[in-house]
Amino acid sequence: MEALEPLIYAGELSPVRDRMIAELGDIDTLCATYRSRIYRYALLSLRDPDLAESVTQDCFLKAHRARDEFRGDCSIATWLTRIATNLIRDSTRSRKFQFWKTASHTAVEAGAVADRLRSPGISPETAMVVREELVQVWDSVAALPGKQRSVFLLRFVEEMELPEIATAMGLHVGTVKSHLHRALAAVRKAMERKR
Amino acid sequence: MKTGHLSTSEQEEYVLNQGTEEQCPQVLRHLVECAACRTEVARLEHGIAIFRSAAVEWSSQCLATRPQQLQPVPLRRFPIAVVRWGFAAVVPLVLLLLALLPLHLFRLSSPQATHPAVQISAAQISDDALLEQVDEQVSVTVPSSMESLTHLVSADNKSGTASAAAGSKHIVQPN
């Protein structure tokens, strides 16, 4: 997790902000540093590799074009996550209206993901139990409402701190915590149903 | 959850604050002492851990198949959306026209029933014209030897009309 460096002069151009903007200006370095993270977030939110790739590219292009608007009050990763969150939300909305579009051929089911999970050194029986657990959690996360799912992913997959998630989502920390509690309760219920 | 154990909310709070300084000391103390609550918390953490492992693994595999450089943003997304919406709007119209087409063909195949009022008036007009034409032909083809008769007929008509008019005067003026 990146530690935020304090700004020297709040509200004015600072060396830290200048350095961040310079980093945003080099789009190749930006992609090399943050691409896997943004792609993972988009992929888990949309569950469509092609759409996630499109959102990731849009995210970096937007960040690059709007780099002068970056105020430097959060890390670049958090800022990129915020842009990606907006793009994912827009993409999800537009996909809701594509009523004629059948499920994407690239959409992945929980079982397929569970089959790909490497589990070295465990017995087939244990692997089967782990697979069942994963399918339960995977489906329950997929069924979460948009904000709960995003908050869950940012906390437990990207391992972001609550204030960072609040900045990335444009929410209060208390709201983020509330969403996380609900998401965890849903995951717990799904796991209990399996037992 | 039984009394004395951590509530589900407390367990979730513990999982949420894992790795931070915000853990409640009482919860931590209880987890050290209570194996049941420890098992519950461990089960939830295990579910999240396998989800994270699978998510990272899947993302890495998907990303490995993608080109490493940024590709040009596909500009065709918006036009395709427009085309799809246009298609969705046109299809019902076409279906409606196809549904109405047999009715239209049926009307075309029975032209007499199409506009009866107009046809009746047209027939009346043609009958009048035909009668006038016959009358003209008859008047033209009357032989000259019978012209006097025609004068008589016309004179009778005129006198008849005059006597009728006189009669009517007589009737109108009884005094």
Account of the 3D structure:
The complex is a heterodimer of chains A (195) and B (175). Chain A has 2 domains: 9-104, Orthogonal Bundle (Rna Polymerase Sigma Factor, Chain: A), CATH 1.10.1740; 109-195, Winged helix-like DNA-binding domain superfamily/Winged helix DNA-binding domain (Arc Repressor Mutant, subunit A, Orthogonal Bundle), CATH 1.10.10. Chain A has 9 helices and no strands. With 195 residues, chain A is mostly helical. Chain A is 70% helix and 0% strand. Chain B is an all-alpha fold and 175 residues long. Chain B has a domain at 8-64. Chain B is built from 6 helices and no strands. The N and C termini of chain B lie far apart (126 Å).
Named CATH topology of the largest domain in chain A: Rna Polymerase Sigma Factor, Chain: A
**Alpha-carbon distance between the two ends of chain B:** 126 Å
CA-based shape of chain B:
rod-shaped
Quaternary state of this entry equals: heterodimer
- CATH architecture verdict of the largest domain in chain A: Orthogonal Bundle
> Describe the biggest sheet of chain A?
none
Which spans of chain A of ≥5 residues are poorly predicted at pLDDT below 50?
1-10, 102-107
Mean pLDDT of chain A: 81
What Rg of chain B is obtained from the alpha carbons, in whole angstroms?
53 Å
